[in-house]
Amino acid sequence: MKTIIHKSNTRGFANHGWLKSFHTFSFASYQNAERMNFGALRVLNDDLVQPKMGFGTHPHQNMEIISIPLKGALSHKDNMGNKRAIEVGEVQVMSAGTGLTHSEFNDSKTDEVNFLQLWILPQELNVVPNYEQRQFPIAGKHNQLQTVVAPKDKIEGNALPISQQAYIYRTLLNSDNSIELIAKSKQNGFYVFVVDGKIEVASNSLERRDAIGVSETENIEIKANQNSELIIIEVPMD
């Protein structure tokens, strides 16, 4: 088993006034040769967007982009005709493929938006762009894994499709509960991000916004030492 620990206070940080962004991996002005990716997981940004502010129209190409709101709602608009808000409990995926443009905006006059943005390297380039978002019931992640993203050729339940052999799970673990992760493939690793709470993984204690990458093993156990919310990304490591 191979592990890598990313403590919350070691992340890159950018304060743009309207946007505060914590970078787990190298992004924009934060460049760290030891923090380029975890397998196919290229970006994990923890963003806080101030009221009535947002990201203007900008392009993406050949990347699988996943947005997960943690607080507030983020309005989305793109050149494929999609125009709607992404709210807490929902997950959004965009397969950028041959290219798309979109904008994201916090319409609230008083409340900031906090969301996670993940970029996963695609399995194939230049696919037809695709956009989907879906609400996932909170009951489906209590002390169990809820699959919210899966490969487009191996969809599980109501999961959203991406063009990569990667999965994203959410779980809410009550204190003293455990959950086992079993890899879909021997080539896959797990990246466990603690949204809130305190857990133990592979003899490592992790707290709010800490993360651990685990690879070269077929299964791992996560124990919650407090009520904890986790996002788990399973990705190919090669």
From TrEMBL:
**Which Pfam families does the record cross-reference, listed alphabetically?**
Pirin, Pirin_C_2
Gene3D superfamilies documented for this protein: Jelly Rolls (2.60.120.10)
Q: What is the lineage of its organism?
A: Bacteria, Pseudomonadati, Bacteroidota, Flavobacteriia, Flavobacteriales
> Could you name the domain of life of the organism this protein comes from?
Bacteria
Q: What is this protein called?
A: Pirin family protein
**What protein family does this chain belong to?**
Belongs to the pirin family.
Residue ranges constituting the Pirin N-terminal domain according to the UniProt record: 11-120
Q: Which residues form the Quercetin 2,3-dioxygenase C-terminal cupin domain?
A: 156-235
